[in-house]
Amino acid sequence: MLARMPDSAAPGLTIGQVAERTGLSVHALRFYEREGILAHPVRREAGGRRVYAERDVEWLSVCVVLRASGMPLPDIRAYTDLVRQGPGNEEQRLVLMRRHQERVQEQMARLSESYDLISYKVRVYEDRVEQAGEAHAC
Amino acid sequence: MLARMPDSAAPGLTIGQVAERTGLSVHALRFYEREGILAHPVRREAGGRRVYAERDVEWLSVCVVLRASGMPLPDIRAYTDLVRQGPGNEEQRLVLMRRHQERVQEQMARLSESYDLISYKVRVYEDRVEQAGEAHAC
DNA sequence: AGTTGACCTAGAGCCGCCTCTAGGGGCTAG
DNA sequence: CTAGCCCCTAGAGGCGGCTCTAGGTCAACT
């Protein structure tokens, strides 16, 4: 049991383990790889199975956060490309990240405006429901 | 010019005008109507053209906010149905709105966590870019 | 020897939400 | 009269982002 667990030094994770740790599905992981969303090529076991390293999990976790905040896959891919190219393009990475940061800010602003309206509606309905209850009581 | 403008009392808006005011496309407006996202049926001019009232614009503006905060169309439709049925189902509307309110809260929380990471990344790259600049200067 | 289970590839399919097309009507200005 | 514009319906198409299928490999338990 606990098969294919190279047991020390460089752990070497299966796609299933990575899925569990990142919250992405196995399918999504393969899909992301095809889309070029991996800073380093995945090693392969004899037999063709993917062998992930800890840093892949870290990278993918960053990607999950970027996705969760609405960064489109093409942008994540562009960022990944920059990272894969190594040091020297920090300005470009900065541009990408700043742009995303602004979008997230806007998103948060819009969301909180929406939240205000929704809260208002909730209050209105709470009042109405309460008054209906009192009417019954009389 | 300024054709088909019944000029007083009940304005009567064309689909194009509603599109402009709500920010929705003409296509989207027809689509929403088919989907039952209109509290009151739209009147039709002789010739079959839709004639919207001010309250439709108001309702659609609410829907735009709900959409912007991620409420799925089926939920908006359910809410619309409740509103169309008239008073008496405020508890149900409240349930719907509260559920959405919670989702929006979660969304905001996740977004602000993401924002922290993104801001961190931005800071890191700012530093690196700055240091690279200094290195050049030396 | 057979069964299980995690993995593989290539590609099709799906969901949500529009967006666009085809084909047509009708008003108004020039 | 015709050009331009906005409108109509029904239904196809597109996009983003996965998700699933078919058909197969391989290693491990029973």
What does this structure look like?
Two copies of one chain form a homodimer. With 138 residues, chain A is an all-alpha fold. Chain A has two domains: 70 residues, Orthogonal Bundle (Multidrug-efflux Transporter Regulator, Chain: A, Domain 2); 52 residues. In chain A, 67% of the residues lie in helices and 3% in strands. Chain A is built from five helices and two strands; from the N terminus they run ααββααα. Chain A has a two-stranded antiparallel ribbon with strand order 1-2. Chain A is elongated. The relative contact order of chain A is 0.09. The N terminus of chain A is likely disordered. Chain A binds a DNA duplex (30 and 30 nucleotides) through helix 2.
